[in-house]
């Protein structure tokens, strides 16, 4: 189900009904009331006047819901949109059940549904956690970390990421233990900020020869490097598929009571 499409349709329908009432149906009700009052010497009582001017239920609902739906559409399309993390591919940065906020204007303003970019602003940077429409199934949103920009040479061998021929610096922090048995917790520095990743020394993982990121495309990877369906398997992310940059976790809910104590910035 495309929620953006449903929201656009709801705004269009309620807005049209409200507009038709303003320019056509409401004046028509008032004319009928004036004609009824002109036909009696005593005039109509208050109850009769209210009945004559009463809005039909579609107009009443549209007048109530249209402003709310319009504000939600504008905020969701051009400012910030919430998402829920469905898989562990971005662990340890993001856990299953995290609810995140995505900045919709960092990479430019786009129209809802058709995704045409109206205003160009910033381009994704290495290290950004980016939400995008999955190239093989655009109705599904993915979240991964940007590791390759247009023109970059990317290679992944022996659990080591190389960008433009240089190994990306990383250091061992600890064994993940009970949180992720068998995994090693490492800190990787990709871009301006450091972030944490998981590697499993017993899992050979994918080996990827050097590739050049085409213009207008990006190479992405999950922080859970041995358990992530990312660009190593299905290729590059086209610029037109970008949704926005994830910047905060505002709630965690994995089936029990929701936790708001996990509010934190994403980096």
Automatic annotation (TrEMBL):
Q: Tell me which species this is from.
A: Halomonas kalidii
Which CDD domains is this protein grouped with?
S26_SPase_I
Q: What is stated as this protein's family in its record?
A: Belongs to the peptidase S26 family.
- The top EC class, named as a word, is hydrolase
Cellular compartment(s): Membrane
Q: Which reaction does it catalyse?
A: Cleavage of hydrophobic, N-terminal signal or leader sequences from secreted and periplasmic proteins
Q: Which UniProt keywords apply?
A: Hydrolase, Membrane, Protease, Transmembrane, Transmembrane helix
Primary localization? membrane
Record has Acyltransferase as a keyword: no
Q: Which residues form the Peptidase S26 domain?
A: 61-250
Q: What EC number(s) is this enzyme filed under? A: 3.4.21.89
- Respond yes or no to whether keyword Transmembrane helix is given for this record: yes
Membrane spanning segments where? 6-25
**One Pfam family name from the record?**
Peptidase_S26
Q: What kind of membrane protein is this, topologically?
A: Multi-pass membrane protein
Question: What NCBIfam families does the record tag this protein with?
Answer: sigpep_I_bact (TIGR02227)
Molecular function in Gene Ontology: signal peptidase activity
User: What InterPro entries is this protein classified in?
Assistant: LexA/Signal_pep-like_sf, Pept_S26A_signal_pept_1, Pept_S26A_signal_pept_1_CS, Pept_S26A_signal_pept_1_Lys-AS, Peptidase_S26
UniProt protein name: Signal peptidase I
């Amino acid at each position: 189900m495309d929620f953006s499409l449903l929201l656009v349709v709801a705004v269009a329908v309620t807005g049209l009904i409200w507009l038709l009432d303003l320019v056509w149906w409401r004046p028509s009700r008032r004319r009928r009331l004036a004609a009824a009052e002109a036909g009696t010497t005593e005039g109509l009582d208050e109850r009769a006047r209210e009945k004559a001017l009463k809005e039909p239920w579609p107009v009443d609902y549209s007048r109530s819901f249209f402003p709310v739906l319009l504000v939600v559409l504008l905020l969701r399309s051009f400012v910030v949109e919430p998402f829920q993390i469905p898989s562990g591919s971005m662990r340890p940065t993001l856990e299953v059940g995290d609810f995140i906020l995505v900045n919709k204007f960092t990479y430019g303003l786009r129209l809802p549904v058709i995704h045409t970019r109206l205003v160009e602003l910033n381009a994704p940077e290495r290290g950004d956690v980016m939400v995008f429409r999955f190239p093989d199934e655009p109705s599904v949103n993915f979240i991964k970390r940007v590791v390759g920009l247009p023109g970059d040479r990317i290679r992944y061998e022996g659990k080591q990421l190389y960008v433009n021929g240089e190994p990306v610096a990383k250091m061992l922090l600890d064994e993940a233990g009970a949180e992720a048995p068998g995994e090693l917790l490492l800190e990787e520095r990709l871009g301006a900020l450091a972030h944490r990743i998981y590697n499993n020394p017993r899992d050979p993982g994918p080996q990827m020869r050097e590739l050049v990121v085409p213009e207008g495309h990006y190479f992405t990877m999950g922080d859970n490097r041995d358990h992530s369906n990312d660009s190593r398997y299905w290729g590059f992310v086209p610029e037109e598929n970008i949704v926005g940059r994830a910047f905060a976790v505002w709630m965690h809910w994995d089936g029990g009571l929701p936790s708001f104590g996990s509010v934190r910035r994403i980096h």
